[in-house]
User: Fold Aspartate aminotransferase family protein from Labrys okinawensis.
Amino acid sequence: AEPGDEQTRRAVARRLGTFGRGAVLFYREPIEAVSAEGVWIQGADGRRYLDVYNNVPSVGHCHPRVVEAIRRQVGTLNIHTRYLNAVVDSYAERLLASLPEPIGNVVLTCTGSEANDLALRVARAATGGSGFIVSEMAYHGNTAAVTDISPSSRTGRPLAPHVRTVPAPDSYRKPDEHPGKAMAAAVSEAIADMADKGIRFAGMVADTIFSSDGVHADPPGLLAPVVAVVHAQGGLFIADEVQPGFGRTGDALWGFQRHDIVPDIVTMGKPMGNGFPMGGMALRPDLLTAFNASDKYFNTFGGNPVAAAAGLAVLDVIRDEGLIENARDVGRYLRDGLREIANRHLAIGEVRGAGLFIGLEFVTDRESKTPAPETASAMINGLRERGVLIGAAGAYGNTLKIRPPLCFGKEHADAFVDHCDAVLNRIQG
Ligand code: PMP
Assistant:
């Protein structure tokens, strides 16, 4: 349907005219964003929108310390990594200090996709294998190789022959199953199936909060038996921290730390520069050595001093403003608030998540647990009308993906719960 007002209709026509009709815009009535601060986005319509969706400006939109770090560095030096530069080295050291042994090297990129693409190359070189395992609705990025391991981008097309999927953990629909043991068994089967077809296993790539599968964080530790199987079969475990990393889960800086595992490779992006494009891959030094024996990697813009300055400021703000603790406390408070309204709204099937990464799943009724994507979609548009930005995820598109900037306060959580309550009152009659 066409948007209602003339100004929006013209702005949409202008966008589709240049970017093509396939260009994706959120909402029946798309929002024109003009500026942002903290948890708020200012619209061209004069309204201010509460951002409960965007996990890139993770320490808050236009955080003054990050803005100032970028401004200062871009006026001083901005160049690639083939010259020594103390800002870049400091950043690499700070990042590695946040990761467990034996992870000891880092390669900086511009996007999460590039980081995952490189991780696949490293895993192939280090293991001699080519087979990868991912979750059923995984998204790991947009390069050709990474699209092969992103089943959520390939709907309607068969998986590439070297890729196998395993179901994501699902405490709601499979309450009787131990998610870690079930996933470990599925991974074993997938590796055996690859072997049958002459494909050697290289590794498993997993978003440690399974965001595109619908946000599945529990129980903590679930990935430990999975990683044990991956290692026993000679593969590498690649933790894709693009979504859960940089404090979002409220447990620690990294989502995998919730599961008491040590990945072989960690990839990261999105919140790393709070909006300045940057990504990275951290890994065991022996793996990088194995890769470099037969291959090379250079990224013109990856790890430039401006990105490094932005990245350092992000780490400083997370520490100085206690954002991991805030994600933990406000996240718990928000889940409690949503569970409270779930007592009245039977359309809510489950509230789950960790820190400020919460899934709110809608069903047609609680007995059958039939997914209700139409309720999720009505919520997204109803909340937008009330000035709140949110999106959906999961195999059925029926789970709201709640992941606001980490400076989200209890007052914002209260407002969000009240808005959800009001929209549910309206759409459920
Ligand atoms: N991995 C995950 C889990 C992601 O969610 C995304 C982006 N949505 C990526 C990788 C790719 O990152 P980018 O868009 O920066 O290439």
Summary: The pocket of 4'-deoxy-4'-aminopyridoxal-5'-phosphate is lined by residues 111-113, 116, 139-142, 207, 240, 242-243, 269-270, 279 (CB under 6 Å).
